[in-house]
Amino acid sequence: MSTLSERILGAPAGAYVDRDVDLAFAHDGTGVLTREALHEMGVEQLPHPERLRLIFDHIVPANTGTTATLQAELRAYARVSGIPLSDVGEGICHQVMSEGLVRPGMIVVGADSHTCTAGAFGAFATGVGATDMAAIWASGGTWFRVPETIAVNLSGNLSGAAEPKDLALTYVARLGMEGATYRALEFVGEGVRGISMDGRLTLCNMAVETGAKTGMFYADDLTLRYLAGYGVKASSQVVEDCRYERTLDLDLDDIVPLVAVPHRVDTVLEAEEVAGTHLDQVFVGTCTNGRYEDLERFARIVRGKKVAVRTLVFPASRAVLSRAIERGILADIVNAGCAVGPPGCGPCLGAHAGVLGEGEVCLSTANRNFKNRMGVGGKIYLSSVATAAASALAGEIAVPEVA
């Protein structure tokens, strides 16, 4: 039987295929480069602007006059070309796409490496460079090499203080940062049923940290209920008896709070092994862990207490922020002494809004801890939201208590 990637792309692993793209997007950074490439190609008319999106999220609001000018030019281009624009404050591209735009079976391509996030809906979602994105915008399609697939077979249930981010760090550590290069990861097994949509988005988001082309869940009843909340009707996908390249078996009962230490995502230790590490900053948010479920978990831990280190919280989208306000979650976070930023990537890429100084240490819920990513000379540790919350209260890396 075919894997999910093979079914969506319509060919066996290893085959090269040309396919129409159902949704293609760029953000304020890659959108500038995509527009330049289209200009160099001499392309003026786009065949399917309704299938495209421009989403401002990486440096929002603009940090310099140059950035502001480039963003103004992109806004003007969106108006002229007819591309739907999500402007400053709407949220991170991957979260915006997850709020009713992506459906099971779609082919989704983004000019950002973490486009694989959308695979949580049973879509084939992958990232490309700006020049490839320009070609997609100009033609409506692109070519793919159908990837081989690694099954991540989940059993049991997460328990204690463990959460999907800890599971993500587990599989990244097991596969390694190059262990799934140009493969698709399929998350299967009876353990899938206990993972929320927000958790599935987190797991698919980090697939690229193993070198994978995409990460995917089969659309099930949970997927359909989630999409119905956005007024979207969809069909479930049947899990077939596939022939995988290999299978990685993970028992969720064994997952514990983990931390990825500088400067590799796959260098992972149990949180208790690095407990006591001094922190200058805690950062909660990004396309990995800035969703409502994440903010609610963080607020529950810090409610009625005060953080002991500067703590930045960036909701993943306006919808997430709005819901957090309506339910009192944001008040709990602010009253705990945290600084709340506008929906977007925040300091994740090291452009603004929380860049680290020389020698400073940050515990982040993001997906990357590469050297100098959030500031030259800074060190980044990666963790779950629960670990980040416990650490913000302690002023040092701490092991979260059982929820």
What does this structure look like?
The chain has 403 residues and is an alpha/beta fold. 32% of the residues lie in helices and 19% in strands. It has 14 helices and 18 strands. Strands 13-12-18-17-14-15-16 form a seven-stranded mixed sheet, with helices on both faces. Helix 2 crosses helix 3 and helix 2 packs across helix 5 (130-139). The model has no long low-confidence stretch (mean pLDDT 96).
Characteristics:
alpha/beta, Aconitase, domain 3, single chain, 403 residues, 32% helix, 2 domains, 18 strands, 19% strand, 14 helices, five-stranded parallel sheet
How do the helices and strands line up, and which of them pair or pack?
Blueprint lengths: L3 H6 L6 E5 L2 E5 H14 L10 E4 L9 H17 L3 E2 L6 H6 L8 E4 L13 E4 L2 H10 L1 E5 L2 E8 L8 H12 L7 E6 L8 H9 L8 E4 L3 H8 L17 E6 L6 E3 L7 E3 H4 L6 E4 L1 H4 L2 H11 L7 E4 L4 H9 L2 H7 L3 E2 L20 E4 L14 E5 L1 H10 L9
Parallel strand pairs: 2-3, 2-5, 3-4, 5-6, 8-9, 8-11, 9-10, 14-15, 14-17, 15-16, 17-18
Antiparallel strand pairs: 1-7, 12-13, 12-18
Could you give the distance between the termini?
A: 41 Å
Give the name of the CATH architecture of the largest domain.
2-Layer Sandwich
Radius of gyration: 20 Å
Spatial arrangement of strands, main beta sheet: 13-12-18-17-14-15-16
Subunit arrangement of the protein: single chain
Instruction: State which percent range the strand residues make up.
Output: 15-25%
- pLDDT averaged over residues: 96
Instruction: List the total number of helices.
Output: 14
Structural class: alpha/beta
Shape: globular
Highest-level CATH class of the largest domain: Alpha Beta
CATH topology of the largest domain: Aconitase, domain 3
CATH superfamily of the largest domain: Aconitase, domain 3
Percent range of helical residues: 25-40%
Number of strands: 18
Report low-confidence residues grouped into runs of 5 or more: none
Biggest sheet character: 7 strands, mixed
Overall domain count: 2
